[in-house]
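User: My collaborator and I are trying to settle a disagreement about how two of our proteins should look. Neither of us wants to argue from intuition anymore, so we agreed to look at predicted structures for both before our next call. Could you fold the first one, then the second, and keep them clearly separated?

Assistant: That sounds like a sensible way to settle it. I'll keep them separate. The first protein:
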Amino acid sequence: MSLTDLKRKKLKDTRNKVSVDEFIEDANNYAQGKTAGQIQPGQTTAQFLKGLDKKSTKIYRHATFTLTEKSISQLDEIAKTTKIAKSKILRVLIDEFYQQQDTAQLTILSKSSR
């Protein structure tokens, strides 16, 4: 082993370049306790879903939950006819349910418990 092997090698800079405006916006969001991917008050479903572009954001987390056979087949059918990914369909439905008033949510939940 020679002394040249002990030389410190430069690490590659892996930081993403951001504009000043993006940096300030992120700082403001951080100060207000907001994180990327959170729906903001007054934000429409379309605006929220625009931010759910899988290629540009890393706000997705893997989730596992149980569905009935009927729900799975219905979801499969919707995905085939609309040619939209099942996970995106679920995100849309969850957001639509979230936007409902409490009474409307309770009505929907009471119908589904049959």
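The second protein, kept apart from the first:
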Amino acid sequence: MLRTEQLSLARQIDLVFKELQEELSGLTSGIVFVQIRNNVIGKFGIRHNPLAGRSGSYAAEQEGLTAGQQSSFRVMALESLKYKKRWTHGEISYEFAVRQGMVVVDATLESNYNMANLMIRYPRSNHGDVSDQSFG
């Protein structure tokens, strides 16, 4: 059986969209997010835009993304991976909305780094010319 870390990030994004297909079919806007660690997607999901209530009740969303709109969304998400450079930890958020029958997507790529990893990689002894200074 294939493990997640053996799949390319693009294939993992493809699987995310397959898993979210039913949920997306009931939404016209929101944010799809994927959290990445070592180029492996861990947590993912959808942040729904707030529900609008009137007269003590919420109106159900009439229709969500069509199959064609979901396909376009998935292609745009895959295209956004071309802008991911060098980092292996972070989050990608895809804010989406249907405008005039087309799905519009804004992608935000967020890289995360861990200072503890840097301290291991660059021990203090390697920085003999840099002294501890307080700035302020």
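Some points you might bring to the call about the second protein. The first strand starts at residue 29 and ends at 37. The radius of gyration is 20 Å.
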